[in-house]
Design a protein that fits this description.
alpha/beta; single chain; 209 residues; two-stranded antiparallel sheet; globular; 7-stranded mixed beta sheet
Length: 209
Amino acid sequence: HVTIAYHRTIRVELAQQLMVDAAWCGASSIQLIPAWVDINGVDRARNHAVKLAESVNADYLIMQDADTWVHGPCIPSLLATINRHRAAAVAASVALRNRGGCNVTPAHPGETYLAELAGTGIMMIDMRDVADVPRPLFLSHSSADGLRNECGEDIYFCRKLREHGKLIAVDYTLTTAHATQDVNVLDPSNAHAKRQLAETTAKAGTQGQ
């Protein structure tokens, strides 16, 4: 479990989640190896996390940003979802900061399903399934003037997996939070969650035209 934490600073809520996950792994006879990545550049940080997982022959890599957390454990649900859908990666749905909407396409609150795109804020990767995918797994592309991010590392990762015949799953059953957003992205009756879903669906429809 690698936390992408600049200056090694994380939310208290994430620390609580990590303790709950560690307890579950211990009770389930699963070896959990916690690690930090404090490297500038999101794509570089995620690629370093991949190298850390490879260095210890990990079966699964969980990457979690320091400003995101799950209310309760996340490993049991992510593990069940990645195996249920036979996916190479599974992401939890997380609210986008300051923009509205969520980081998965399509968005189906309360469900687990296969998807085209999924953000990497909270993601589990089956390292055995991606062993044959060329490195690097993550890469960001900026515009020629360097002012815009034309392709984020998460979009690049999802496209690369699909190009190599891999599946990407979403776990929208987890109740997650993102710093500055007090949004329960699980509860479909939540007004903000409904607005998120409507915005995400509308954007997906516009991009498809």
